[in-house]
Amino acid sequence: MDKRRGLLALGIETSCDETAAAVVEMLPSGEGRILSSVVLSQVAEHAAFGGVVPEIAARAHVEALDGIIAAALADAGTPLAAVDLIAATAGPGLIGGLIVGLMTGKAIAAATGKPLVPVNHLEGHALTARLTDGLDFPYLLLLVSGGHTQIVLVEGVGRYTRWGTTIDDALGEAFDKTAKLIGLPYPGGPNVEKAAARGDARRFDLPRPLKGEKRPDFSFSGLKTAVRQAATAVAPLSAGDVDDIAASFQRAIVETLRDRVAISLERFHAAFPGLAAPALVVAGGVAANKAIRAALEGLCRDNGFRLVAPPLELCTDNGAMIAWAGLERLRAGLVADDAAGFTPRSRWPLDEQATPLIGAGRRGAKA
Ligand code: KG4
Ligand code: ZN
What we know:
The protein is an alpha/beta fold. It folds into 2 domains: about 5-130 and about 315-340, Nucleotidyltransferase, domain 5 (2-Layer Sandwich); about 135-310, Nucleotidyltransferase, domain 5 (2-Layer Sandwich). Helices cover about 45% and strands about 20% of the residues. The strands form 2 sheets. The protein has a 5-stranded mixed beta sheet with strand order 3-2-1-4-5, sandwiched between helices. It has a 5-stranded mixed beta sheet with strand order 8-7-6-9-10, sandwiched between helices. The radius of gyration is 20 Å and the shape is globular. It binds 5'-O-[(R)-(carboxyoxy)(hydroxy)phosphoryl]adenosine (KG4) and zinc ion. 5'-O-[(R)-(carboxyoxy)(hydroxy)phosphoryl]adenosine binds next to helix 5 and helix 6.
């Protein structure tokens, strides 16, 4: 018996170093349900290189993707025939991986006669809070990942205005580079967080980049340089030094975020004065950091906002957010007739009108 009540999407994500697929249902009410979500991380393949190697990533996607899709369909108990649409990440990200995922999506769509929805990976992150929390528009999104650090006004599906971005490194990149500088293994973020929990956050006096400035942007490269100088000054580093640098770095990040994000909260209040429960959504891998979450929670409380943080497995890259974005696009009538002819875009800003800032998203690999 077909127990479906809504629309079913198969989502495919291959833009960086996670091979992922998921089946998500959108009920007639607009509510979402994740029926399955399978994520294969390539961390082990890239660890020896201290970062993601595009060629290795693309090959790993080729090897894994068909099995991951089969597993997602099996976990959901959904035959491919019952799926209504195929959503695949078409950018931004590493081009090799994007080609693997999008072409697989196109092939499945062509073979089954189902519609294909090419999805912007950032839109996947941006709309996740509607899947998990049923959030209404408008809201503010803070996207903090390995490749992006942006604060975006989300007013509808496809309606994104970038308010702030990084002028140099992404926040996850700053964590990863700091980890490398003080000898912690890849991936850096979680290891810096662990070391920070043991360390003395007041030992090193690190800068708070752009603090007090009116522009709502971010900058992290000066902080990284200061970490290098601090590490050089006390080298060779003892385990205690490593912990203290990590703690001082994380504290500087937390204070910087509070300062930078506050500007956009104020601007949101001014733009939507009557809104009963304004929300700040935090997404991306760095949103897994508990100190950052706690700081954002405090900031939101102080400013009359609600912090919406999707569960950790939906903050990092996954297929469910891509399936969901595909469903949202279909429902909003935003799937182009020639969608099946879409070619992958390694660079694809969420807000096409926003001027790129120097160095922003330079790595362009992860989102
Ligand atoms: O969203 P994500 O899984 O991949 C993309 O970038 O798309 O984010 C990965 C980034 C990495 O830079 C990683 O170091 C960072 O998120 N990250 C963290 C933590 N967990 C992951 N940064 C700080 N604290 C964490 N606990
Ligand atoms: Zn991402």
